[in-house]
Specification:
Layout (H helix, E strand, L loop, with lengths): L14 H13 L4 H21 L5 H12 L8 H6 L15
Helix pairs in contact: 1-2
Protein name: DUF1778 domain-containing protein
Organism: Actinomadura darangshiensis
GO molecular function, one term: DNA binding
Length: about 100
């Protein structure tokens, strides 16, 4: 048995879109809500998978692995940038920066 659904979403559609969704849900033997939820959830998972998983061929994997194994190099100005206080850091607690 499925869990209770507490959240509700409202979507505005054009008449043609609504008719298409109704026809597709009917053809698949489900309600419009179930059909849209399944399709939207699958699409969301696909979008997020593209941001979490990537596939490389052997040559691409070797290049990626070599890049990970290299020692980090110095990037001019990066250390200073990361060590310099910003407006988001707030006032200097010991008052030295005033």
């Amino acid at each position: 048995m499925g869990s209770a659904k507490d959240e509700r979403m409202h979507v505005r559609v054009e008449p043609g879109q609504k008719a298409l969704l109704e026809a597709a849900s009917s053809a698949s033997g489900s309600t419009v809500s179930a059909f849209v939820l399944k399709a939207a959830t699958e699409a969301a998972a696909d979008v997020l998978a593209d941001r979490r998983v990537f596939v490389l061929d052997e040559q691409g994997w070797q290049a990626f692995d070599q890049a990970l194994e290299r020692s980090p190099g110095e990037v001019p100005g990066l250390r200073e940038l990361l060590e310099t206080p910003t407006v988001l850091d707030g006032p200097d607690p010991d008052g030295a920066g005033e």
